[in-house]
Description:
The chain is α/β, with parallel strands linked by helices. The protein is built from 7 helices and 12 strands. It has helices at 36-48, 61-68, 97-111, 137-150, 172-180, 200-208, 230-250, and strands spanning 12-16, 53-56, 75-77, 82-84, 90-92, 118-122, 125-129, 155-159, 162-166, 189-194, 212-216, 225-227.
Amino acid sequence: MPEEDQPDPYSVALLLDFDGTLVEIADHPGRVVIPEDIRSAINSLHKATDGALAVISGRPIAELDAFLSPLRLPLAGVHGLEIRGPDGRLQTHDYEHAALDRLIEAARIFERGRSGLLVETKPGSVAFHYRQAPALEPDVRAFAAEMARSTPGAQLMHGKMVAELRLGDRNKAHAVDHLMELPPFAGRQPWFFGDDVTDEDAFERVNHMGGRTFKIGPGDSEAAGRFADTAAFHRWLVSMARACADANDMQGGHQTKGGNRGGLGEHAPSHNLGSMK
Ligand SMILES: O=P(O)(O)OC[C@H]1O[C@H](O[C@H]2O[C@H](CO)[C@@H](O)[C@H](O)[C@H]2O)[C@H](O)[C@@H](O)[C@@H]1O
């Protein structure tokens, strides 16, 4: 890995997508599992960066908390509609609740008799998962497009085996903007990691901010860097966390600039931080 691809925990903010990035894609949204070494690496890197690590996901914050427990991290949920900053304060962007009720009602009717279709309802959003019935894709896309046309303020997004209708005019770029204005994120270089088309808004924004962007897996992307798959990203994340822990041990776990980060010391070489392969 080139030296410039090795983050210095003192100066970067790590922004991580959840599905396909921190967890492997599963056949059902409720069946994802966060590997213990990844939970532990996230915890170490959250400390090493003085708290400048956040998860930015399409899932609601309550679900992310449940999967990540006992970690309690800065989070952006439902593609930026919900944000919980480092101080623990939750902010929710407004949307028309009556419009969501109408979307849910129509979705439930559409779902009837379509075996394998999963309708997921979230604050400000309805998602139609067809992973268990891929033949439904054209039908789902046509229905979701029609609902988007007939619902003022609805945005249609296509993710991995899912079509999603969102209200509230937010996307992951807004989440990046919001978090990067807050300490300890402010003033750091954002590094964003994601696997899906729903991460593209954030890739563009982070590129524009002079940050680093990494796409996980195949597919066209605005991201400048790439990991072959989720497993490759996990190896890199774990090696980076280990390097931070080793650097901290070398310092005897002493207080470093900004507190006891459990991270690399001010003068530690950045090439300790592992490889992307
Ligand atoms: O922004 P993310 O953290 O990547 O979340 C995107 C969506 O992830 C979930 O759906 C996806 O993952 C499921 C589990 O692996 C998979 O079964 C599904 O096909 C994928 O689309 C989640 O259910 C959605 O709410 C998120 O928006």
